[in-house]
Amino acid sequence: MSLDHLVYATPDLPATVADLEGSLGVRAAPGGRHPGFGTRNHLIGLGGRSYLEIIGPDPEQDPPPDPRPFGIDELTGAALVSWAVAVEDIDAAVARARAQGYDPGDARDMSRHTPAGDLLSWRLTRPQGLVPFLIDWGATRHPAESGLPAAGLVSLTIGHPDPGALTKDLAAVGVFTDVVPSPRPHLTAVLSGRHGEVTI
């Protein structure tokens, strides 16, 4: 398993993109719209096939019938809410996780068009907070391969009140990393840009 992307959700996408540009010195590139979900995103490369997704409401879409993903409708400010790991056979990865006692959910098909009009298609499991969701890009060109503006990922910290239980679930999806004791669950990333390090 390898880090695919971090999800930085916000109730105000333009403001958050501007804030990150001011702190990192890097302007996130427009990604695209998610039809039917009421969201769109901007992207910053994190090195290799990894990136930061900044996702928020899309005012050019009608309000979606269901709540926007990642709890966007309830957010009062930007937050690092989830992350994804890349797999090559998502159905097999789901089966392995279930065999180890963790259910990441069924894989579903997703797609969006880039600003240039290219169609990106992928499959993913449902986001579940600190345990990363699985994503399989299949034959689609990975977004990080499109020359994104770049920042460095210095560290990613996972905090949880019960590190042992979370470590077991992480291992079920092929992630082996330390979990620090914390009174509340959280993800914290440190990024390195032109203006120095920024914690989100």
Characteristic terms for this protein:
12 strands; VOC_core; 2,3-Dihydroxybiphenyl 1,2-Dioxygenase, domain 1; globular; 200 residues; Glyas_Bleomycin-R_OHBP_Dase; eight-stranded mixed β-sheet; alpha+beta; single chain; four-stranded mixed β-sheet; 3 helices
What can you see in these coordinates?
It is built from 3 helices and 12 strands; from the N terminus they run βαββββαββββαβββ. It has 200 residues and is of the alpha+beta class. The chain has a single domain, classed as 2,3-Dihydroxybiphenyl 1,2-Dioxygenase, domain 1 (Roll), CATH 3.10.180.10. Strands 2-3-4-1-5-8-7-6 form an 8-stranded mixed β-sheet. It has a 4-stranded mixed β-sheet with strand order 10-9-11-12, with no helix packed on it.
Q: What string, H for helix and E for strand, traces the elements in order? A: EHEEEEHEEEEHEEE
Tally of strands: 12
Quote the CATH topology.
2,3-Dihydroxybiphenyl 1,2-Dioxygenase, domain 1
Distance between the termini: 23 Å
Kindly report the spatial arrangement of strands forming the biggest sheet.
2-3-4-1-5-8-7-6
Structural class: alpha+beta
Question: Fraction of residues in helices?
Answer: 10-25%
3D shape: globular
* Main CATH class: Alpha Beta
Detail the poorly predicted runs. Answer: none
Computed over alpha carbons, the radius of gyration is 16 Å
Question: CATH homologous superfamily name?
Answer: 2,3-Dihydroxybiphenyl 1,2-Dioxygenase, domain 1
Q: Mean pLDDT score, rounded? A: 94
Architecture in CATH? Roll
Domain unit count: 1
Taking the sheet with the most strands, its summary is: 8 strands, mixed
Query: How many distinct helices?
Result: 3
Question: What fraction strand?
Answer: 35-45%
Protein name: Glyoxalase-like domain-containing protein
Pfam families: Glyoxalase_3
Domain VOC: 2-138
InterPro entries: Glyas_Bleomycin-R_OHBP_Dase, Glyoxalase-like_dom, VOC_core
